[in-house]
Amino acid sequence: MMEFLLNWCFGFGWLNSSNHRKSLLAGIFALSIAMTVMLSFPIQAQNLPQSTELRGVWLTNIDSNVLFQRDRLKSSLKQLKDLNFNVVYPTVWNWGYTLYPSRVTKRVTGISLEPEPGLKGRDMLKEAVKEGHKQNLKVIPWFEFGFMAPADSELAKKRSYWLTSRQDGSKIWKEGTHDRVWLSPFRPDVQNFIQNLIVEIVEKYDIDGIQFDDHFGLPSELGYDSYTVAMYRKEHGGKSPPSNPKDPEWVKWRADKITDFMKRIFFAIKAVKKDCIVSVAPNPQRFSYEYFLADWQRWERMGLVEDLVIQIYRNDMNVFIKELEQPEVKAAKSHIPVSIGILTGLKAKFVSMEQIQAQIKQARERNFSGVSFFFYETLWNLTKEPKQKRLSGFKNTFSRPTIYPNLLAGWQQCRCK
Length: 417
Known about the structure:
Elements: H1 2-10, H2 18-40, E1 54-59, H3 70-82, E2 87-90, E3 93-94, E4 97-98, H4 103-109, H5 124-134, E5 138-139, E6 148-150, H6 154-158, E7 173-175, E8 178-182, H7 188-204, E9 209-212, H8 226-235, H9 248-272, E10 277-280, H10 285-292, H11 296-301, E11 307-311, H12 317-324, H13 327-333, E12 338-343, E13 345-346, E14 349-350, H14 353-365, E15 370-374, H15 377-380, H16 387-397
Parallel strand pairs: 1-2, 1-15, 2-5, 9-10, 10-11, 11-12, 12-15
Antiparallel strand pairs: 3-4, 6-8, 7-8, 13-14
Helix pairs in contact: 3-5, 4-7, 7-9
């Protein structure tokens, strides 16, 4: 067979030459020696390409003090690196305050930093970036609250005219036991404030990206404030918005306005730092769009999202898998890196290591770019299982280091359609 193939490749009769036969034998002998030497080396020495996988965790200021203690933040980042994580998402905008010293919030609220004793005299984000990079972790600040604020915050009190409302004029939006309000994402002054906050972070810190979620939208029951109603009437020949907040046209009109702002933010970020990753961590599309007017499917199609981490916090494995296989998720996977957000527990909700590992397995089997966990404290501290069991579980799951996905590889200019 070999003789036939060589004659076929080089011409029949090629092997009839004694010189050619000698050359062939010498070549085969040399090749066999080379292969023997190569295979004798350990596999690490063969310079094989490493696999990539996003392995992230959200660092919060709720039910956790990881951000409020300098030494704990430092040791936590080192531990994450030792367990082969490669990205952290520290919250930087929460409860109407920034968790870093901000000139922008100082101008608007009179307060430049969240009044938490553990943050006093510190620049938490600067520390997180410095220590994170020291541990070879990517640091992507999480703009958690978006347009939302506590009802009793200085922001809500001093800029009450920025707030939006329901059709009956009520403004309070319940998040668990907390009273929240929402800034109108349609007002130019609100948009300027949010944009200035984001640009401030990108300009001031050596971050690897910035992340938004559903709070960069608006609960669909809101949007009936006088400013938004007047804008709608102007664009609809004097007609008022539908009384049904779920009316498809009314939902789309508001969602499209938010998309326009997302486009503006994308370019504002890129104007400062082109390689700053724009990341979005939403709920599944249907929920995000219908309940928060956050049309991330369209954002992704427009090229406004360079990293998608979909929050699929489900106990039922069948439901979890169903969300992984949604058409818009598969479509996004063909354009950009898509990872899965997995719940590791809440203060009042236990999630077993078995469930966490099973969900990681499902995401890996479908070739997602990685996983991220909500939230740091429930990885191994705030949980019913022994800490050592949790640590061992993550160590076994992430047994080897991986390269953080190059989320900007193949990036194209925003299509924006």
